[in-house]
Amino acid sequence: MSEIVNINETQLNTVALILGILALIAVFMPLVTYNEFFYVNIFALRGITNLLLFAPFFIILPAILAIKGELQKSEYWYITFGVIGLLLALYAYNSGVYALRLLIGFKVHGGGLAYINTTPDIGSILLFVSYFGVFLIGLVIQAKKKDSQLNDENTKAKLGSKTIEETIAEIHNGFVLFDLGKYQEAIRYYDKAIKLNPRDTIAYMGKGIALYYLGKYQEAISCYDKAIELDPKNTEVYYNKALALDKLGKYQEAISCYDKAIELDPKNTEVYSGKGFTLSDLGKYQEAISCFDKAIELDPKNTRAYFSKGYALFHLGQYQEAIKYYDKAIALDPNDAATYYNKGIALYNLKKYQESISCFDKAIELDPNDTAAYNAKNLAQKNLTN
Fold first, then answer.
1. Which residues contact 232 (CB under 8 A, 6 or more apart)?
2. Which one in 13, 118, 144, 223 has a CA-CA gap of 20 to 30 Å to 199?
3. What is d(CA 116, CA 113) in angstroms, rounded to the nearest whole number?
4. CB 71 within 8 A of CB 58
5. Is the pLDDT reported for residue 364 higher than 50?
């Protein structure tokens, strides 16, 4: 059982989805195969109707939601409805055979019933296998979760206080080096912590963030996935995974992670800002603005949200409104070169060249290596003299 329990839960939910679809197909099989079981199912309409409704609404839909991470405790669905599905399948088959016996009995006088073959056809077998499979998947997912909880308890028991203290010390060293910008060295300490305690979520997340800052986004995602496996209710892990996915251009996957983080922590302002920025990358500026508004509602001092809303408004051609939000961002953080640069571009589009030059000058003062600001300033000066 231990090998089965180690199977990815998403894969198990995918198999449940496939079995649910097979159960639906199995119901229709006798209707396209002209044999005695055509009559079996015709006279078992109540059972078939139940199955038709059952497969899509109680197995297929929950399986899709479980794969997307939007259904909690999918195993209870599969165990419960797998058993009920088996009973309904049995009812449909038996009532159909009984109806067929009556039908043949009326048509054939004297002993007609003795010659009826009641062996299940392929469709009937498939129906039973599908629902039984769904039931087994429920048991495996349940066993997987219990095994995970048991591992956590066993890990704590095996580690002992000394090892736990050593793990915390290594993670702390990683944090210190990360703050100093020494990301590769920080990773070495996170690896030491993981070696001491392979089930430490913080160590995996810290390593993932360091890899992210090194531009190794796919490796970072692998660390985040491990952290999620260990702690599926950690908002920060989903948030950081979304940032890495965004860098890889996997915007839809990033949004799914942001949505999961919001589900876990609906008052996390940074998550709304991050989702809004990814929506902006997709060109969905109006939806992005809704996210930034939510972030600002939760934290009126969220500089990134004001800047990002200004960015989205700019791309909608609302330059004056964009400037208003850039000004709010500058009021909160007057040392951000990017905000001055973006404000300057908005002023340039309004043909307010002198004001835009002032913004570009400020951006250059804060970041003398900002070549974009130099180029924009030169262009504004040319338009000013024309």
1. none
2. 13
3. 6
4. no
5. yes
Structure tokens at 83: 């058993």
Give me the helix-helix angle, 74-107 and 45-54, nearest 10°.
160
Name the residue among 66, 89, 50 with its Cα closest to residue 18. Answer: 66
CB 59 within 8 A of CB 16: yes
Query: Among 124, 106, 119, 98, which residue's Cα sits nearest to residue 43?
Result: 98
pLDDT at 188: 93
Mean predicted confidence (pLDDT) in 56-66? 68
Rounded-to-5 percentages of helix, strand, coil across the chain: 80, 0, 20
* Cα–Cα distance for residue pair 38/96, rounded to 1 Å: 9
pLDDT band at 143 (very low <50, low <70, confident <90, very high): confident
Contact 34, 62 (CB under 8 A): no
Q: Which tokens go with 150?
A: 């048991």
Enter the pTM of the model. 0.60
Tokens of residue 285, six digits: 């500026």
